[in-house]
Each structure stands twice: as C-alpha cells, then as structure tokens.
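Appendix B, Record 12. Input sequence as logged:
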Amino acid sequence: MKNQADNKNMAIGVVGAGSWGTALSNLLATKGYPVDLWVFEKEVRDQIQACGENQVFLPGITLSSRIFATNDVARVASGKALLVIVLPSHVFRKTVRRFKEHIAGDTVIVSASKGIEIKTHLTMSGVLSEELPAMGPEHLAVLSGPTFAREVAQNVPTVVTVAAANRQVAGWVQQVFASPFFRVYTGDDMLGVELGGAIKNVIAIAAGIADGLGLGYNTRAALITRGLAEIRRLGVKLGANPKTFSGLAGVGDLVLTCTGDLSRNYTVGKNIGKGKRLKEILSEMRMVAEGIKTAKSVYELSIRVGVEMPISHEVYRILYHGLSPQKALRRLMARNLKQELDEQ
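Logged structural output:
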C-alpha cells in the first residue's frame, strides 16, 4: 500500500465540493494526484472547470488543474484506490447509496465528514458500514482534527489525525495526505475521532452564544472545558478511548471551533446570542452548520444511553424549543453542585 501512495497516477475520488471537500481535493491534487471531484451543484462544477475556483464555497483560492469537477457519479467512484467522502451528515446516507454500485471492493474509503445521523445516531463510518457491508472495516478510515478549510487551502500548517481499524490502512492514508503543510497522525479509535469531531460543533454553538451575549473569556473557557467533559463522557459510554478526547480530534478541534471566527457553528451561536432567530440566520447561510442537526442527535443519543450532557441539552432546547439563551445560562449555573472529575 505504501508504494501505491507514492504513485502520483493513483486514482482518487472526492465526494462533496463544499469548502472542506474542495480544500482536501486541492491538497491531494497539489501533491500530484489526479482528483475527480463530485459536485452536487452544477454552478460550482462550471466554476471549477471554467476558472479553477469554487466561488461559492471557497472563493479566492486558485485550485490545481489536476482537479476534474463533475456531476458524474460513476466517474468519481469507479476504479478509485481512494474515495474521500466529505458530505453533511443529513445527506450522507442517500448520497452514498448513489455511489455504492460503482465502488470497487478494494477501494479505501475515508470519511472526512463531521456529524451524527439523526434517528439512527450513527457516526458516518457507521453509516458506511451499513450501506457498504461488503467493504468491511479494513477498508474504512476517518480523518478529523482542528481544520478550517480556508487555512488548509492557504497552506497554513495544519495537523490532523486519521483513524482506522486496520493499522496498515491508517498508515497508507497518512502517507497519501501528508504534506509539508499538512501533518497527519494515526490511530485506531474511529468512534472517538468521529464523536469528537461531531459534538464539538454543538459546544461551539454554545461558545458563540456566550460571546454573543457578551459574557467574556471566563465563560468561554468554562464552556470549552465542561463541553470537553461531556464529549468524553458520551464517548467513553459508547466504547471510545478516553485518550482520544485529549488529542487533535478532541480538545484540538474543540478549541479551534469554539474560538475561531471562521467556524460556522460558532458564528451561528454568536448571532443567536445577539438576538437573531435561527430561521433568519439559516436563510443567510449557503454552507451547512453541522452542529444544528448534531444537537438533536446528541440530545436523543445521550438520553437513550443515560449520559448527562447539560450544555449540549441546553443548546438543543435553544435551537429546537425556543429557549432563551439567558434562561439556558441561568439553568446551567443553578444546577446542583458536584465534584468536577467524572468517575471514569
């Protein structure tokens, strides 16, 4: 596999041309790989083909000529050594179904999506396992970490983690993605990496709300710290390695998303804190703030497995039941006093 990673003619497909999918496509193409990028929107396909720029989702970034943007499902999936899937969680399953008949059994699939499916409460690797049962876990990996797509596209030094059940697959994906500006670590805790990448978006909405209310740095630091405790608590309950949440896909991604103005989830929260209604905020956005849907999934999942997640629950109530941020804050601060560290 490692020798194949050195083959610059190796066929790679990327499914999803949002900002993150486009940035990863450009990273791989800049390394010399030919990349077929599946684009949902015809206008985005035409922009990339005509002027080498995704003006909708990643404006101002000149893309490699090795990227071929297309709406052709078969072209993107067929005969690929590596298929990278970068889709919002709510369209992940139905889109994978469009591709499944074209995916070869020896293709390695990497999910770079960050979400938890509503109703099933599965991470994206769980969805892939259901939809592509013949693939087996030895052909699946997940990529996550503290990443803003624009900064990756601008070659800002970035560090991520790739997790796979098969150590050889993780190492191979590491070699494919690694560049002088994009350092990749490996691990085997796929579930922990995915939970960290998904739930941090919910906590980022909370951090944005706090900043929108003008509550200060003390509050933000507390939200990040206690938010991490919630993520870890749920992860451990579901069988993830607690150490994962001290790493790039845990605290690393959480800090970035809760403090950076490039974070869509943080921005949604900040606007809510300033008094805007969610419907109004969403009407002004073209890109997906994954934490909005994940808040519902996390709420339902945590109730089902009996895990206490007070910050995530208050975000859910704000988003789905119209609870005022001020009341949510009072509820959090008035909870019964207890020791800080969990038993586990």
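The two ends are 38 Å apart (CA to CA).
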